[in-house]
Amino acid sequence: MPGRISLVQACLDGSADDVHGVVLSREDGLVHPRLPEFWGIIDFVLANDPTVTAHLYR
Description:
Layout: H1 26-30, H2 35-48, H3 50-56
């Protein structure tokens, strides 16, 4: 699959709310102990969800 995935700061538009839980900075996210799980989920969705794949890789 072409393209790259990147970890970025969330809710830069100020929309952070309780529904988002703890909003990490990019720096905090990059050192979070569960980051490998996050990438695993992203890999799974990209490989197995045709709707997401079709949207991202038209």
